[in-house]
Amino acid sequence: MGLEQGRADSPADDAAPSGEAVADVPLRVIAREWGRIGVTGFGGPPAHIALLRGLCVTNRRWIPAGEFEDAIAACNLLPGPASTQLAIWCGYRLRGRAGAVVAGLCFICPGLVMILALAALFLAAHPPTWVLGAAAGAGAAVPAVAVHAAWGLAPASWNRIQDPRQPGRHAPRAARVRWIVYALIGGAAAATIGPYLVLILIACGVIEIGVRIRPGAAGNPVSPKAALPLALPAAAATGGLAALAWTAFKVGALSYGGGFVIIPLMQHDAVSTYHWMTGAQFLDAVALGQITPGPVVLTTGVVGYAAAGIGGGLLAVAVAFSPSFAFILLGGRHFDRLRRNQPVQAFLTGAGPTVIGAIAGSAIPLARALSHDWQYLLLAAAALWLFAARRGVVSTLLLAAACGVIAALAGAAVS
User: Domain boundaries in the chain?
Assistant: First the structure.
């Protein structure tokens, strides 16, 4: 039965937002299993989803396969890290709100501990030469990784523009043209006006709502996402912890597409506006977010650490992930309705290609942050490794870091 039909104090009923309630899974089991995924979840969202599916659908049979796939689709409709939201939702499905909180924390915390420890090493005042080399090497590969991430997201977004009433047919020419225009706008915005990228993303989504759906028509209410807060809070404009919290909030609540879209959303604030870190250090932060387990949004922890030490790192991560918990705890029971909401679908049809363009466009300022000739050679090699050899992101960054260590030990400039 659905949540709204059960008793509020019944764990079994609260654990089943759709479908029949499952056996009451102990919180200690959720903590153990989600903690294991948090430790071993290298490889980003595809790896996280595979591990969650293996645990909840294939091995334990806690969640029906169809319901799990629907949850993936619903999480992809939300801003923020989709795989983290899926991990939280699975805990919510098994043990209600308590299960959601335990699952989310155990999924996030192992990567958080690791990334803060690495941040302390890489951002130290006088790190060892080999650490500087590893950072410079991994950072050199990041622009290629950004383009690779955009390339991987493009097919699903392109397929979204098809007319759902005529599946399998080519999208109308006007829709294809809009998709390309949105992507180009996103790329240009990420490369030039980073702090206003959120406005561009929302504008493109709202335009697509206007094209596809008559605003205010019966059954088609305007998407609430169009009314998200956009103005920079006055306290954040002065810098400090308020600015750090605002930057992290944008990542968690306004990053349609999750993952690499955090780069254009954070880079300008972290490097140019508040000077928490240099361009090279931001490259290090992105690389650390990729090579550690857990969600890529943990990159906010490195930025927070650079801004205000361990406390800043914890604050940034708490703010960045709080929207994901809120979306599931407050809206998990409405996932089916969310998937069927036409304005939401139209919004993402416009915002999706803009996000992809922004991720690809972020490669331009990232590449400009490189300061040594050998890094550009390593960037070219990383691009060949990703696109020609079709290798993974983690292996790309680790090999680039190893090359950087060799370059540093050979006497190449690394700082």
Answer: 3-108, 110-409
